[in-house]
Amino acid sequence: MLRGSHPTLALSALTIAALATTVLAISFDAGAAPAGVTITTIVGAGDVLQPAQRLRPPAPENFPMQVTPRCMILDNFGDPRSGGRTHEGVDIMATLGQEVYAMADGTLTYQNVVGDGRAGTALSGNSWKLTSVGGGTYWFYAHLSNFAPGLAKGSTVFKGEVIGYVGDTGNPGTGNYHLHFEWHPGGGAAVNPLGLMTVPPQCSVV
């Protein structure tokens, strides 16, 4: 019972199973509100976070990864690689399992999965291609230990949503945990993503 509230007023929780969200509402033991009492919506269904979101800090703005316990960005865009390749992204050194976030609202348009037999997977390991709303700019996330539950190629995701977890799959070598991150503005050639990211103070750039 709320202090100073009407004797018949109680706070209840209505669980909407289909959305896996909780809506807080004011209900009355009697069928109608007492005279002079105004019912005000506290939270709408679309505004309530999922339980997992409520238990973790918000994703950093314009940054693709959880920044703790480790975040060290290697400014290695354009560095030479084997086979005449150049490095088309930057590597963000981290620990196993740190969360990886969608940089924008969009669609997961490509997925490499360890063991799928594709040549590209041998390099990138578990990886996502995220294409922005409207289909142009895309981001590539590689070497994930795993993908966020419930996501697959074709899934719609939102900026800041967890899409995977840092790992060492592909060619980094065992224990070399990091996120390989690429930015392709307009769907074209890769551009150094350091120009896109807002580097949090917890991260170093080397």
UniProtKB/TrEMBL annotation:
It comes from freshwater metagenome. This is Unannotated protein. Residues 86-193 form the M23ase beta-sheet core domain. Its cofactor is Zn(2+). GO terms for biological process: proteolysis. One of its GO terms (molecular function) is metalloendopeptidase activity. Keywords: Hydrolase, Metal-binding, Metalloprotease, Protease, Zinc. The keyword Transcription does not apply.
